[in-house]
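So, does this match?
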Amino acid sequence: MENVKNICLTEEHLREMSVSYVSMRDKEEFIKDVSPGCFDKMEIGTENGDPLPPFYKESAMRKHRYMTAALMKLYLRVDYDTETEGDPWSITEEDYETASRSFLISQLERIKKRTADKELQDKIYDLLADYKLLEKLLNAECYGMLPAMNDTLSRFQMMMSAQTTPEAMEALLKATEEAKQELAEYKAVRG
């Protein structure tokens, strides 16, 4: 059996390292950084194969990975490796699995229940409440972004600008000229 690594939170670590409140500025920065990455692009084409502007759907798993990274970095001050250079929230799959397998929220709940240290107990209550607030804020941001990203008018404009190539415009002008010519001929015949 392989050596399974887990994160074991201790009262000492929670007293010394963890924080129970993350500033609104840090919450805003986190949400601004991760919210665009909480969506998957769904490519859709027409029956004749012409591409249409994509639809977007929320990626619950990616959002959960971001929230796990936030719990570890912002609240518990536990290090993890990042998957993407320059993105401090892109927790690697291995570190995500380690954190998930460690049931960090459950550990916090158990320590909160068992500890005789009233001050630590209060700190954990506050930490969990602030973390849940961060999660609600991220959910609200994603909830607001999705309709804007899938807006019919915006998608139509994207489709029109994608189809407005110089060649397409040239063909459209040619078709317009041909239609004018046919209309002039029709008028001449009808008199």
Summary: DSSP finds eight helices and two strands in the chain. The chain has a mean pLDDT of 88. The chain has two domains: 11-150, 163-191.
